[in-house]
Amino acid sequence: MPDLQERPQPSLVEAIIPVASLVLLVGLSYYLFEDEGANGPNQVGMVVATMIAVFLAWWRGYTLHELSDAAIASVSSGMGAIFILFAVGALIGTWAMSGTLVAMVYYGLQILNPAYFYVSAAAIAAVISFGIGSSWTVVGTVGIGLMGISAAMDLNPAITAGAIISGAYFGDTVSPLSDSANLAAGVGNVNLYTHIRRTGLMAAGALAIALCVFWFIGGAGDFDPSYKLYVLNSDFHVSPVLFLPLALVVVLALLKVRPFTTIFLGALAGGLMAVIVAPERVQAFAEADHHVPASLAQLKGVWAAIARGYVSTTGHEMVDQLATRGGMRSMLTTVWLIIAAFAFGGIAEKIGVLERLIDPIARAAKSAGSLVVMLVISVLATSIATADQYLAIVLPGRMFKRSFEERDQPPVLLSSSVGASATPTSALIPWNSCGAYMAATLGVATFSYAPYAMFNLVNPLLAIAVAYLGTRAYTQRDKRDEAT
Q1: Measuring CA to CA, how many Å separate 127 from each of 124, 130, 162, 164, 172?
Q2: Cβ partners under 8 Å of residue 51, min gap 6
Q3: What percent of the chain clears pLDDT 90, i.e. is strictly above it?
Q4: I need a surface site. Which of 109, 127, 300, 417 has the fewest CB within 10 A?
């Protein structure tokens, strides 16, 4: 059997076929099933695309054992995302039962005005995400509360999700605490704060544009929340103490505790809060036999909310829609999507599809501006093919590094361009782990919120514009930064 290094690189056509098959099949799924495509048909399309890639690899001389190992290794690398998804499902379930979600909506209705809700949601998410450096944590906690407020105000859920994601990814792009920002700086061997200074200017511009758009979109007209506030308070007895699980999550995130641990501890805190403030609600939800001790009935209720989510039965439609959600089980369809996507990405990486597609793109660039354009295209192709934000940072960054050096461009141009494109755009691809997470957590399909995720759309375009319009000035300053 020939060694991996002895195998010829796939032809350009062979490299295009798997990726084109993936895009075509998922696109056909959305055409036929619309938003329901994410509930199974998309996954089937991705499995078929994976089998096409496997057949081409087998034709090239790879053994099925090698390809199986590559797919398994790729799926294994996505286990962190899968466990975070389960933790978020658990958190939503216990926060719904405890009243934490209702409290977020209750006070949000008092503070926020529907006329400027979208811009407020984006700004709130941006401030918090910059502070903790994690878009996933922001969306999985504050984001679900903002979605509940939006629903209570009868606002557009797709625009709301786009606003939340725009703000959340601002912090994920420029916060010193962000793992993706640190990774992008590392790809270019650039000082983190040099990278953030360069990336931050573009991100601030993109966020400003996004906020202007959301301000222009506006919201509903006259809105009287009095009745809804009365109903929420009568059913859940809202008080500030219900924010303690949220406060715990924020503190743990600031302390840089791992996301899964942070979110799952927040879920347990929500369960404990439910037992303390509303034991009768937990008891009723548990539906335990009369001979079961009260303490075990409480445990069963929290356990059930973590596993399969909470079901509200107040009789008020608005409240029941808001508080019926969550559970680890609710994330299984998204987990299926992530497994299928990572399996495809593992096969594509194993047989050299990405290298074959990116290499001619890198060689085609003649100027700094065109080099950044090709880099952004390569980042998108990698994010589509591998379904992983981190690979979309590392692989194109590594493969374009020599091209930037040959053209005497500063390393920070490479790192900032990768960071400005890979991190935000990952949330726009339905089968990418980030896009799948956002859709599952906020309850809005990726293709529905993507047109409104203004920061995520604008930031890569600003990276390209800066490369074309400001390369000389940036190059001189960045070289001074590197020298110091």
Answers
A1: 5, 5, 16, 11, 11
A2: none
A3: 46
A4: 127
Contact at 8 Å (CB) between 191 and 483? no
pLDDT of 400:
85
Q: 287: which 2 tokens?
A: 């539906």
Three-class SS of residue 325? strand
The pTM for the full model equals 0.84
SS3 call for 310: strand
In this model, does residue 481 exceed pLDDT 60? Answer: no
Has residue 307 got a pLDDT over 70? Answer: yes
Q: Is 239 left (phi over 0), alpha (psi -120 to 50) or beta?
A: beta
- Number of C-alpha atoms within 13 angstroms, CB side, residue 351? 34
pLDDT the model gives residue 219: 66
Q: What is the average pLDDT across 286-290?
A: 83
**364: Cβ contacts below 8 Å, ≥ 6 apart:** 370, 374
Q: 139 pLDDT exceeds 80?
A: yes
Task: Assess contact for 325 and 92: CB atoms under 8 A.
Answer: yes
Q: Is the pLDDT of residue 1 over 60?
A: no
Of 408, 399, 397, 396, the residue nearest 368 (C-alpha): 408
For 435, the token pair is 């896009």
Write down how long the chain is.
Answer: 484
- What would the pLDDT profile of 95-114 be if each residue is shown by its tens digit? 999 999 999 999 998 998 88
Phi-psi region of 156 (alpha: psi -120 to 50; beta: other; left: phi over 0): beta
Residue type, 406: E
Structure tokens at 14: 């062979």
**Per-residue pLDDT tens digits for 10-56:** 888 888 899 899 889 988 988 898 878 878 898 999 899 999 999 99
Whole-angstrom CA distances from 158 to 26, 151, 162, 164, 442 are 20, 11, 6, 10, 9
What are the CA-CA distances from residue 32 to residues 38, 149, 210, 444, 445 (Å)?
Answer: 12, 32, 32, 18, 15
How far CA 14 is from CA of 20, 49, 54, 357, in Å, comes to 10, 13, 12, 10
State the chain's maximal CA–CA distance in angstroms.
78
Is residue 279 exposed (0-12), middle (13-18) or buried (19+ Cβ within 10 Å)? middle
Give me 383's structure tokens: 């994010």
Closest residue by Cα to residue 52 from 353, 380, 316: 353
